[in-house]
Write a structure and sequence with these properties.
This protein has 248 residues and is mainly beta. The chain is built from 3 helices and 14 strands. Helices cover 6% and strands 48% of the residues. Strand 4 and strand 5 form a beta hairpin. The two termini are 18 Å apart.
């Protein structure tokens, strides 16, 4: 990425994933995108984190006054006819109103009251979308570092772009950052209505959960109309083994 449109850090991030029937998720994804499957299932991720040091190119991290705020997204994994995989967001909960500008390219941003708190050995994430809107509360206990990510670990985290739809057009936003350092994590409390608000059936089975302290040098590219061009070679790695994806 020669010139990013925005720089930031994605910190204190938890990934909670459930498998779903492909047809239930595909019904919520616009054409021409198709659900990217892993072993015959679609996957939906709930990912709360802290968006830190949001800034324009050329502004150094740590500059006084840069916004830092919680964000949470609910997303699935899709593939474009070009073969390029990416994220499709069902919702983006943000605590900084200026992030609502991303609605201009169809990002489903919602303003809300969000919080991320460390309590001894646990992390507490919570949020509510306006008065009486969708909400969540997640308490996780980070575990040991994952030295050798499994194939599924890599597949769930490995995404380098997001797709959105606006005014009849599909948009693509590229992302670059350093590798994730993942750890296992256990869920102690999980209450959420984001999946139901998105039109998904209730999650079933135990979720797959990862934690990361985050990545600090995130580069978000300009959003451009998605084209049927050949996929570009990927770069970067997850714990040195495979491509790492955006924590969005």
């Amino acid at each position: 990425m020669r010139l990013p449109a925005l720089r930031a850090g994605w910190l204190t991030q938890t990934f909670v994933h459930w498998s779903f029937p492909v047809e239930a998720v595909q019904a919520l994804v616009p054409e021409p995108l198709v659900v990217d499957e892993y072993r015959g299932a679609a996957w939906v991720g709930l990912t709360p984190f802290v968006m830190a040091d949001v800034r324009l190119p050329g502004v150094p991290a740590g500059t006084r006054g840069l916004p830092t705020f919680p964000e949470t997204n609910l997303r699935t994994y899709v593939r474009h006819p070009s073969g390029r995989d990416g994220l499709w967001f069902f919702s983006l909960e943000v605590a900084w109103p200026l992030m609502l500008a991303a609605r201009g390219i169809g990002a489903p941003c919602h303003a809300g009251a969000l919080d991320v708190t460390r309590r001894e050995e646990t992390l507490v994430y919570s949020g509510r979308r306006g008065a009486g809107g969708a909400s969540y509360r997640l308490v996780v206990r980070p575990g040991v570092p994952i030295e050798r990510p499994t194939e599924r670990d890599v597949w769930l985290i490995s995404r380098w772009r997001a797709y959105t739809r606006r005014l009849g057009m599909l948009w693509e936003t590229p992302v670059e950052h350093e590798p994730w350092s993942l750890a296992s994590a256990g869920v102690e409390v999980l209450e959420e209505t984001l999946t139901a608000s998105a039109g998904l059936p209730a999650p079933s089975g135990e979720p797959v959960v990862h934690f990361s302290e985050g990545v600090r040098n995130v580069r978000l590219g300009a959003s451009l109309p998605a084209r049927r061009r050949p996929p570009l070679p990927e770069s970067g790695s997850l714990c040195g083994s495979a491509p790492a994806g955006p924590g969005r």
